[in-house]
Design a protein that fits this description.
The complex is a heterodimer of chains A (about 375) and B (about 475). Chain A has about 375 residues and is an alpha/beta fold. Chain A is about 45% helix and about 10% strand. Chain B is elongated. The chains are: A alpha/beta (about 375), B alpha+beta (about 475). Chain A: Its cofactor is thiamine diphosphate.
Chain lengths: ~375, ~475
Amino acid sequence: MTIDSVRGAPGASELAEPELIRLLTPEGERVEHPDYPLDLSAGEVRGLYRDLVIVRRIDREAVALTRQGELGLWASLLGQEAAQIGSGRALTEHDMVFPTYREHGVAWCRDVPPLNLLGLFRGVNHGGWDPAEHGFHLYTVVIGSQTLHATGYAMGVQRDGLLGTPSAGATMAYFGDGATSQGDVNEAFVFASVFNAPVVFFCQNNQWAISEPLEKQTRIPLYKRAQGYGFPGLRVDGNDVFACLAVTRKALENARTGQGPTLIEAFTYRMGAHTTTDDPTRYRLKAEEEAWKLKDPIERVKAYLVRGDLADTAFLDEVEAEAKQVAKELREGCLALPDPAPLSMFEHVYAEDHPLMTEEQEQFAAYLASFEEEVTP
Amino acid sequence: MTPVSPKLFKLPDVGEGLTEAEIVKWHVQPGDTVEINQTIVEIETAKAIVELPCPFEGVVAELLVTEGQTVDVGVPIISVSTEAEGGVATPVSEPPAQAAAMREEGVPSAAESGMTSPDQPKRQPVLVGYGVKEGTTKRRARKAPNGAPAAPVSVPAQVPAQAPAPPPAVRPQAVDNRLPLAKPPVRKMAKDLGVDLTTITGSGPQGSITRDDVLAAQSGEAAAPAAPRATAEREERIAVKGVRKATAAAMSGSAFTAPHVTEFLQVDVTRTMDAVKRLRDLPDFAGVKVSPLLLVARALLTAVARHPMVNSAWADGPSGAEIVMKRYVNLGIAAATDRGLIVPKIKDAQDLSLPDLARALTDLTDKARAGKASPADLSDGTITITNVGVFGVDTGTPILTPGEAAILAFGQIRDMPWVHEGELAIRKVTTLALSFDHRIVDGELGSRVLRDVGDMLEDPLRMLAWS
């Protein structure tokens, strides 16, 4: 083995043409994979379709609300629905999720009310759901740090001696392709590997870290990085909800039974902007978006349902109507969200009293009291 | 609330902390029916062009701002008449009394804030997601100090109320040299308009000077008979920004780095004009714009193929200066747009067939004029054509696009007396000008390139012969 033989070409074609684990083609054809059998009833497939459509509608409404000045920011999941719903529906009761700020689909699967997500982006709460109740940690905005939290949490589950028992829960950390360049993520990989932590690293490779393309993050396919740390890595068609479900199920089961961590790279595409303050037309070509549009995660499930007579028009209309209703309620709920009292910012900082914070709280109360009571225009 | 009153949509902050946006294009007109989330307008902020979805369902009553206008966040831009619905609260539909109360978005007292409940509609300031506020916010006055000074907490907007800015009009100027209170954009505006802030009494919070104050002062000054103040009227100061700024930087950068030489050539293009007419009739060019510019572009591409050195760039390499000779041609076409000069590039133009070149030319310039050209469209040029003829002039001495070695100016085509086949005739004549970077291109090479282009336009068959 020489340096030159190992170096090889920087695998541009590998980045572009991935060996994807796929169970449903972009055209909606069901294909089998020897390692990932998946047997879904018609009802289950319809359920996944419903999730995908509703989550996309929630996302669209949130983008519109941001454009209307009702939210300060929104990170759209457009294009990544299958990766999130597939992996999200693979989770079971005792599992724990550590999301980024884009996991609206996973939040939906964990029964976090969408309005709570909007509260965060409206700036009226810090998330406001109970992570323990939903098995879904608060959104993490710092890139990649949640992979360390997840690994630590997983090591805790391991130390509780629960692995292999029915109450064992796996931990899943979500992150993006850009996060793989972070020190935190690499540290998490090392810890997870050497401690055999029951954690699944679910990387949604949406090809763009804001304006940085994938080739600025890696010279090899991301899933191959796992090998260097000493645990399995897989690449799945991130726009194939079936494949995401099957692969994540298996990885989570491995974690729960003490077989260690897995890296799943869900190969997908961010169809929208990074966030509502970003303009992707400044750094990427329309042609690329058009190419990915043909791989839409929802259209292929719809084609599969219709072609296999698993659903009729009435069902599709029903889902559409339900999504519309969810969006309507979300809009109304968002506009009616109460503003927090200024002093409430001190409320959930520490579990117990903290002298410095109490002092700051009193100072702030005094400051607020220093204004005139009466207001006349 | 039953009365059917038009609802106002105020310009929201669509980015993080943007203060204003330009109205680019309205997608609806008064009388149009609109749905919730229907795109109604395109705006351009400092960050991006963004489409705004309508927050109401109803009929457009009025467009309150016009295209091209730059509007502050919080200013109503459209009113929509809606069917009064069962009390569904929308962000800007409060009855007048409440709306007035909202305008006074003061920091609530501790007692008040403690009682906030979901059914208390009054909005309070929070960091983001505040809905759309009025353009200006006022806070309540601070209580008079009664012994205990206000707690020294760090709040950005806090300015000691006990030291309000004294009315600047009566300020002894030599003694008090503190800057009058005004936000940076207002300061800039005052500077641009030539208004002296120290002469203005502010009407904003803590006596700060607002935009309106500056504008009022300016119009007051303009009306005043005093001669020295009249400069603001006799001269207009236009802030240099956007395309103008980029153009200025590129032009002075180019003019002072690359030694320019410009050569001129008058050409009889009668046969080119005939060729243009005949090309238009060919089925291959159906639906494509065929202009003399197309053949000029083709001729330049052919000349480049014959003299590749003219399609090059001066660069600083690892071991001193280098000439980078490009084996591809990204052909820049200077286009005048509403935003100023834009030079979109036709990438790998050397590989395009004539119909494809025609299409690329039309698409790219249309895109540039519509303001839709992407940065990729505008970068990486290798050589440029500037079609000054469309402005009705014969020629010019064009300045090189930075990083390129040559630029061809194409003047107007007009009927001129010309010696044709030994006799005086009326012919279609144009003037070509070629500027080149004299570090790379010598007079001989530059002349050959220009002569070649001229020959091809005089007899388009030469393009065939030389391709």
